[in-house]
Amino acid sequence: MAIVSSENAGKVYAQRFLKIVPKNTDIVDLNYLLFVFNGSKLIQKQVHNILEGNLIKTIKLRDVLNLNLKLPPIEAQKKIGNYYQSLKEYEILT
């Protein structure tokens, strides 16, 4: 999962990509979603269990929407999301 920058918004994305756009960013922090989909072992296990295909693994949008995703309060999401982003930036620099 990645956050699409404003300069890339509206551009075509490749096949086998899902575009997820939260309806209300007052209750869902984008950086928290990055952590959940890229760093959370619980979600990775759920995704692994529903992947389809032998050569190229895919997941359907309906399966993503049915993941057991628990959302903490927005302030906690922001703290977790910001920490995750800082960690990723540090990894890039080292």
Would you give an account of this structure?
The protein is mainly α. It has one domain. 48% of the residues lie in helices and 0% in strands. The chain has helices at residues 30-39, 41-50, 61-65, 74-93. The longest helix has 20 residues, at 74-93. It is globular and about 35 Å long. The mean pLDDT is 83. Residues 11-86 form the Type I restriction modification DNA specificity domain. Belongs to the type-I restriction system S methylase family. Pfam families: Methylase_S (PF01420). Its EC number is 3.1.21.-.
Tags for this entry?
94 residues; 4 helices; 48% helix; globular
Number of domains: 1
Structural class: mainly alpha
Helix content: 40-55%
Can you give the mean pLDDT? 83
Protein name: Restriction endonuclease subunit S
GO molecular function: DNA binding; endonuclease activity; hydrolase activity
Domain Type I restriction modification DNA specificity: 11-86
Keywords: DNA-binding, Endonuclease, Hydrolase, Nuclease, Restriction system
What would you say about this model in short?
The protein is an all-alpha fold. It contains four helices and no strands.
Write the layout of secondary structure elements.
Blueprint: H1 30-39, H2 41-50, H3 61-65, H4 74-93
Helix pairs in contact: 1-2, 1-4
Family: Belongs to the type-I restriction system S methylase family.
Protein name: Restriction endonuclease subunit S
Organism: Candidatus Ligilactobacillus excrementigallinarum
